[in-house]
Design brief:
heterodimer; A: alpha/beta; 5-stranded parallel β-sheet; 4-stranded antiparallel β-sheet; B: alpha+beta; 5-stranded antiparallel β-sheet; 8 helices; about 20% strand; rod-shaped
Chain lengths: ~230, ~475
């Protein structure tokens, strides 16, 4: 969905390939993206211009990401910051959050996950937790715990309902298996058995939500994850 | 400069020699003094007898006294005898000619208390050592003081000879002991040197060799056995490491190879967007596989380094097992299998819920995977011996051959190469399970018979006794 005023994101990342992928991926989502290759540059840009979100790599040449972050926070800058780190030791995460980061992602991260986090950060203040969700002729009422398609009620198990709700909340955006493992199954790590479990649930959901109605809403994006959307 | 010898052999010899020298010295000195004392005792005894003889031979003559001896004045031929007779007030009455005017001590002083049989050693002015006994004797015309002396020379000679023997024998004995000790130490240490030589030949490449043990009962035999035992364990560890390295490179290279060939082939000719999409998707699947592989390896290496912190709390073993079952239930449903959980819900363990569940999920996943359709899987919790609780996951799968059982918890170990890879597993599931259980001070074991299923048993320390009804 295109935003009225374009949201600006600063990406501080020294790895050229990653930086380019982030820029392209975010621009596709209609964000305005500025890339800084070093900590110094990022620090300068964030002071000079207005951004809605900063994506900050922790391992940077010149100036460490954490240092940049804590300096910015000391100066009272309140732009949300999402840190990227290849070090996933708990201490590092804690240190990142202590330095004033709002969220973190461990490399290699799934891009859909990054997008979901970015959306969550930028949506923060609007607080849209509408209990009624819809896509095309699929409707869900989270409070009443019912789901309908074309006015017909769907018989879903608890897990299937949660899965569909999650997909619907992220409609038109790809949901990765990591996101499902963490948010739907509440597992700390995505493990192989869980992948098989997800596949079974997605298949069952398809049989209930898609097959009787002809038009597919649940799509598998090979190697990336799942998405709920209307085929154009 | 090193004064202390470095080889055990020299040190042993030095000790032998030192101890022997001290013993010999003590023994030599002891016998020397014993000899000295007994000779003196004998001499004093003779002297006393002689004095009594002399007393009987004193003859009064005008103007003085004289001693009439059968052997003449010189006494017995072996001993030179000297006689002096004094009045108690220090006047010389008689002196043997042999003394040539030399005194056998100072003249008696009047008023000094006279003692019977007082012994003293005296050196004459010509250097002769004389043992003297002084006594008094009643004559018809008053008291006289008699001194009889015996030459000490013969005793000195004997002692001297004895001392010489000791002085020559001591270094000789010590020297011989040194040589003997050195030879003995060599003999005692020879098996150790042999062991060292044998050990040197055993390298990391050839850990199959073992030390030869002559007598397994003696100390060296035991040492050899300990060495051999250590070698066996080392060999096993190396073997595992070698297999791990080979397996890991295989596991890591397979997805890389797939990515590379899929990508390269796709670039060879023009394809439609949909086809490219498919190629990229296929490559991403491999990336995904690699990512999980790396993450699992990181989990294990962090565990090896002891960097994992557990959030332990008291949890019901049965409820954790039920959570694991509820996650995987759908997989069993797809194969029309049933999973039953039995056990006392109050059996509690002190554990990190998520990590423990992960361990159980991995075991349960295996059970579901390998059990035939329509079969039954049992998850049974119970109380074992000595404050231990166990959870058994019992399947009706094909079982695991006995020779493979010790390795199933090894990283990347696959019981059936071809079959397991189809499932897209990382080959690290059971290793992670073992780590997770051991991190909770527990133990995971496998009992299996080919053809009749497997039992994986997790035992953990009990956190609380079940509440008595």
């Amino acid at each position: 969905m295109p935003e009225k005023a374009q949201l600006r994101i600063l990406v501080v990342e020294d790895e050229t390939k990653v930086a380019r992928a982030l820029r392209e991926g975010l621009e596709r989502e209609k964000y305005e993206v500025v890339v800084a290759q070093t900590g110094e540059e990022g620090f300068f840009l964030v002071n000079a211009e207005e951004f809605d979100l900063v994506i900050l790599d922790l391992m940077l040449p010149g100036r460490d990401g954490l240092q940049v972050l804590s300096t910015l926070r000391k100066r009272g800058l309140e732009t949300p910051v999402l840190i990227l780190t290849a070090r996933d030791a708990v201490e590092d995460r804690v240190r990142g959050l202590d330095s004033g980061a709002d969220d973190y992602l461990v490399k290699p991260f799934a891009f859909p996950e990054l997008l979901a986090r970015v959306r969550a950060r930028l949506r923060r203040n609007r607080s849209e937790q509408d209990p009624r969700l819809r896509l095309a002729d699929l409707e869900m009422d989270v409070l009443a715990r019912n789901a309908k398609r074309s006015g017909r009620s769907l018989e879903l198990t608890v897990r299937e309902f949660e899965l569909l709700e999650y997909l619907l909340r992220h409609k038109e955006h790809i949901v990765s298996r990591e996101m499902l493992a963490r948010d739907v199954w509440k597992e700390s790590a995505r493990v192989t058995p869980l992948d098989n479990v997800m596949d079974v649930h997605i298949n069952r959901l398809r049989r209930k939500v898609d097959e009787p109605f002809g038009r597919k809403l649940i799509h598998t994006v090979r190697g990336v994850g799942f998405v709920l959307r209307e085929e154009s | 400069m090193k004064l202390y010898p470095t080889s055990v052999r020299s040190r042993l010899t030095l000790w032998y020699v030192g101890v022997l020298a001290v013993l010999l010295l003590a023994y030599g000195a002891g016998s020397f003094f014993y000899l000295l004392l007994s000779m003196r005792h004998q001499m004093d005894h003779n002297l006393l007898e002689d004095k009594e003889t002399v007393e009987g031979q004193i003859v009064t003559k005008p103007g003085g006294l004289t001693v009439q001896s059968h052997h003449g004045e010189e006494g017995e031929p072996s001993v030179r005898r000297f006689i002096e007779i004094w009045t108690p007030d220090g006047k010389l009455l008689y002196r043997t000619a042999q003394l040539q005017g030399q005194a056998l001590g100072a003249p008696p002083v009047l008023g000094e208390k006279l003692k019977r049989n007082e012994f003293a050693s005296v050196v004459l002015s010509n250097g002769l050592r004389v043992r003297v006994v002084t006594s008094f004797h009643h004559m018809e015309n008053g008291l006289i003081v008699i001194r009889v002396g015996h030459n000490e020379e013969s005793m000195g000679r004997e002692l001297n000879e004895f001392g010489t023997v000791l002085a020559i024998g001591f270094p000789l004995g010590v020297f011989l002991a040194g040589i003997g000790g050195y030879a003995l130490a060599h003999k005692a240490l020879a098996p150790i040197s042999a062991m060292a030589r044998e050990t040197k030949k055993i390298s990391a490449e050839d850990l199959a060799a073992r030390l030869s043990i002559r007598n397994p009962q003696d100390e060296l035999g035991q040492l050899g056995a300990v060495f051999n035992n250590m070698l066996s364990r080392l060999q096993q560890a190396f073997e595992r490491l070698r297999r791990f390295t080979a397996d890991a490179s295989h596991e890591l290279r397979t997805p890389l190879t797939a990515m590379r060939s899929v990508g390269e082939v796709a670039l060879q000719d023009g394809k439609t967007a949909a086809e490219y999409r498919d190629v990229i998707g296929s490559m991403l699947e491999e990336v995904d596989h690699l990512t999980r592989l790396v993450e699992s390896l990181l989990v294990l290496s962090r565990a090896d380094a002891g960097h994992v912190r557990l959030n332990r709390e008291e949890v019901s073993l049965v409820s954790v097992a039920q959570e694991a079952v509820s996650v995987l239930e759908v997989l069993a449903e797809e194969k029309r299998q049933t999973v039953a959980v039995t056990g006392e819900p109050s059996l509690a363990v002190f554990a990190d819920r998520l990590i423990l569940r992960q361990a159980i999920v991995n075991l349960l996943d295996n059970a579901i995977k390998y059990s035939p359709p329509d079969s039954r899987i049992l998850v049974r919790a119970g109380e074992g011996e000595a404050d231990e609780v166990f959870l058994e996951i019992i399947d009706r799968g094909p079982g695991i051959p006995i020779e493979q059982q010790p390795y199933v918890f090894d990283r990347f170990y696959r019981v059936d190469e071809a079959r397991t890879r189809e499932w897209g597993g990382t080959g690290l599931g059971l290793s992670i399970t073992r780590w997770a259980v051991e991190a909770h001070d527990g133990d995971v074991t496998l009992k299996s018979q080919e053809g009749s299923g497997s039992v994986f048993r997790v035992s953990l320390p009990l956190a609380r006794k079940p509440a008595q009804p």
